[in-house]
Specification:
about 325 residues, N-(1-d-carboxylethyl)-l-norvaline Dehydrogenase, domain 2, 2 domains, eight-stranded mixed beta sheet, binds nicotinamide-adenine-dinucleotide
């Protein structure tokens, strides 16, 4: 199997996402070419990258003396063709507009070697269906979360023709940079997190439109509950703690049946209380499982209070 070496990365689009993506790769020693059609955006990107690196140094995450080297590894330009020479990978972070992305892939296809990896940072467009690149086995999605230099998750999504070796290489690279890639089986609009977030947004709009709560009340309520629990138990395991029998009853009271829950309840997989639910707790008692959970929750609550997180920034 051919070893894929990734040393030089072209980040296309230097906006909210592109500048952070460029920064994190430069921090990890990659040679980065940050390309934008708008010079003013590149200037802004440089300013934001400098600010971010200064915060990282102040917080002891990086050494201050590394900042110059990191910035030196990012070449900023509006000359796409020149920047595309000798690159191993492109990460595309241009606006979420199909027509813009389509034109960008047509151009990249023309100017890049056929083995250059193309990764789209799309929030959920099916780039695979319209990119039209000559060698689609090198096209995949790497969906970073803002600020890309900090948030660990990258949703990695292969397209129908992506070479698994390329997906694995990209995943390993991200892991080596301290990222937490989650690889989807295949494309689904909005991937995982934005799909969930879209439902949250719809509920928030409903509450605000009806005047049921203020923005401050909503954020305080969410931060002081889900904000504590989600980092520890996520959105699925939390149901194991609720009890899948209760989740099932709630769904039924709304006139819905979820076979994925109903089947587990019929099989006495009620969650933590029966030591099996979505997760298998390997015979551990409810008391034991709750003890671990509570230790984590206490640490989380203590930390959130230390930084006064329940108040708005
Ligand atoms: N903003 C977020 O929180 C977020 C999170 C995850 C993914 N995304 C996705 O990342 C992509 C970029 O989003 P963003 O928020 O960074 O957008 P943005 O508008 O902040 O930045 C886009 C940049 O692309 C540049 N650009 C436009 N056309 C170009 C071209 N042909 N060639 C080179 N540069 C070009 C613009 O000048 C701009 O600087 C989108 O697909 C978006 O859905 C955004």
């Amino acid at each position: 199997m051919k070893i894929i070496k990734i040393n030089t990365i072209l980040v296309l689009g230097s906006g909210v996402m592109g500048h952070g993506i460029a920064q994190i790769f430069a921090q990890h020693g990659y040679s980065v070419r940050l390309v934008d059609t708008d010079k003013a955006m590149l200037d802004r990107a440089l300013d934001l990258i400098k600010g971010s690196l200064e915060v990282l140094a102040e917080e002891g995450v990086i050494e201050e003396k590394s900042i110059t080297g990191t910035i030196g590894r990012i070449e900023m330009t509006t000359d796409l063709e020149g920047a595309a020479k000798g690159i191993d990978m492109v990460i595309e972070a241009v606006p979420e507009v199909e027509d813009i992305k389509k034109k960008v892939y047509a151009r990249l296809n023309d100017i890049c070697d056929s083995d250059v990896i193309f990764a789209t940072n799309t929030s959920g467009l099916d780039v695979f269906s319209f990119a039209g690149v000559s060698n689609p086995s090198r096209l995949l999605a790497t969906h970073f979360f803002a600020p890309a230099q900090l948030i660990p998750l990258v949703e990695v999504c292969p397209g129908p023709e992506t070479d698994p070796h390329i997906t694995n290489t990209v995943v390993t690279m991200l892991q080596n940079m301290g990222k937490e890639p989650v690889v989807l089986k295949g494309f689904v609009p909005s991937f995982i997190v934005n799909r969930i977030q879209n439902y949250i947004a719809m509920s928030v709009f409903e509450i605000l439109n009806n005047g049921w709560a203020t923005p401050e009340q909503i954020d305080r309520a969410v931060k002081a509950s889900l904000g504590v629990r989600l980092p520890i138990v996520g959105v699925v395991q939390t149901m194991d703690f609720t009890g899948l029998d209760l989740v099932n009853d709630i769904m039924k009271s709304k006139g819905m049946t979820m076979p994925i829950i109903d089947d587990k309840v019929k099989d006495n997989r009620l969650g933590v209380k029966t030591s099996r639910g979505f997760y298998d707790y390997k015979g551990k008692s409810e008391k034991e499982i709750c003890k671990t959970r509570d230790q984590y929750y206490l640490k989380m609550i203590g930390h959130l209070r230390t930084i006064d997180a329940f108040k708005p920034i």
